[in-house]
Amino acid sequence: MEDTKTRQLSGFEVRIMQEKEEIIEVTQDLVEFKTVKGNDEEFEKAFEYVKNYFENQGLELFEHEENDHRTIVIATDENPDLMLHGHVDVVGAEDSMFQPRTEEGKLYGRGSADMKLGLACLMKLMKEIDHERSVGLMIVSDEEIGGFDGAGNIMENDVYTPEFAVSAEPESSGSWTITVEQKGVVRAIASSTGKNAHGSKPWKGENAAEMLFEKFQELKKNFEGSESTWSSTVNLGSFESGETFNVVPDRAEARLDIRWTKDYPPEEIKKDAESIEGLEYEELTVDPMLYTEKDDEMVETLKSIVNETMKEKVSIGRWEAASDMRHFSDRGIPSVVFGPKGHNIHEDEEYADLSSVEKYYQTMERFAGEF
Q1: pLDDT of 7
Q2: CB–CB of 153/311 below 8 Å?
Q3: Which of helix, strand or coil describes residue 242?
Q4: Are 186 and 286 in contact (CB under 8 A)?
Q5: Domain with CATH 3.40.630.10 in the chain
Q6: 3-state secondary structure of 239
Q7: β-pairing verdict for 184-193 and 164-167
Q8: Nearest one of 66, 62, 204, 54 to 138, comparing CA atoms
Q9: Which single residue of 187, 226, 317, 368 has CA 20 to 30 Å from 135?
């Protein structure tokens, strides 16, 4: 049997090894930038790193800024047909998590999975892209807080009108999935009004906190009755009531995180909430869901390439969490989430699975080349 340790590697194998090494190096560099909300200096450093990476590559660079949130687009032309997407912002973590470490094929660090490995793969792809192809890479800095100033603002104003979009958000389910549906998001305030009284004489007042909790249970029943994870849900994220312990509160307020599907859309949720006597309901934001037809031509093309390149089964599916792809989908642009594997997202032991790099990169390289 041939000894793989001593045999000479083919040119193709050498190229694959070099590509993987560069992608891993770029990921490690990106993780070191503490790009958390409000850390403007680190965002500036991260974007300068990205710009330097593409220096002298003959690509066009477009910069956008809205409410201090910066977005750059690296593209082969002004309005690319295929738009790739990645974000540099991450959720907060201890300083130690911004010191990446590699162990047993896993790259640990904040943002390693979500989504700096995916971004590094797309950066390498754009660096090597055939300039005859119409491809762009949008890199945003506000995805973790809703993406309204980045992808949301850009797509709402039709700055770009691609035919298809792909975000390299991580694949955390364990098996390769092309995500064509993600739940929409409603952020709302539910409140109740009561009557003040001294805490020693609660019968003289009307406790708004108790009232609101009771009304919330009534509202919550509208989201029950389905054992499927693909159903609309409501989460009571925070609750505020009263200013001191010895007064019956006359006002209570709850902030709700609602994830909706087509089976129970925002307009029906609002109607049901407003029908509950004693409950005041106010929507703060209503975000669309990601929805792309499963049989979309480019979805089928990507699936075919995944099957051929990876030699593994890939599914077309749904994911509960939201992403910037909803901003593309809301403008009628077929969009999907498909990225390299990563786990423990937003957790202390977040890591990117480096064994997925070669197959993911080769798949996206071929997809972009054939688009």
Answers
A1: 57
A2: no
A3: coil
A4: yes
A5: 11-182+291-370
A6: strand
A7: unpaired
A8: 62
A9: 317
Query: Cα torsion at 267, 272, 275, 280 (round to 10°)?
Result: -70
**293-348 pLDDT, tens digit each:** 999 999 999 999 999 998 888 999 999 889 999 999 999 999 999 999 999 999 99
Q: Look up residue 363 and give its two tokens.
A: 């798949």
- What is the predicted pLDDT for the residue at 12? 66
- Do the beta carbons of residue 51 and residue 72 sit within 8 Å? yes
Residue with tokens 């309005």: 79
Other C-beta atoms closer than 10 Å to the C-beta of 206 total 18
The predicted model scores a pTM of 0.89
Task: Report the length, in residues, of the chain.
Answer: 371
Can you tell me the distance from the alpha carbon of 310 to that of 14, in angstroms, rounded to the nearest whole number?
18
Q: Do residues 290 and 264 lie in contact, with contact meaning Cβ atoms separated by under 8 Å? A: no
The SS3 of residue 183 is: coil
Instruction: Map residue 305 onto helix, strand or coil.
Output: helix
Tokens of 181: 């549906």
Given a contact cutoff of 8 angstroms between Cβ atoms, the answer to whether 84 and 136 are in contact is yes
Cα–Cα distance measured from residue 138 to residue 257, given in angstroms and rounded to the nearest whole number:
27
What is the CATH T-level fold of the domain 184-287, as seen in this structure? Alpha-Beta Plaits (3.30.70)
Q: Measured between alpha carbons, how far is 163 from 79 in angstroms, rounded to an integer?
A: 10
81 and 134 in contact (C-beta within 8 Å)? yes
DSSP secondary-structure letter at 145? G
- Report which of 298, 286, 240 is spatially closest to residue 260, judged by C-alpha positions: 286
Task: Choose the CATH number for 11-182+291-370 among 3.30.420.40, 3.40.630.10, 3.40.50.720, 3.40.50.2300.
Answer: 3.40.630.10
- H or E stretch including 252? strand 251-260
Residue 99 is given by DSSP the state S
* CA distance linking residue 253 with residue 31, whole number of Å: 38
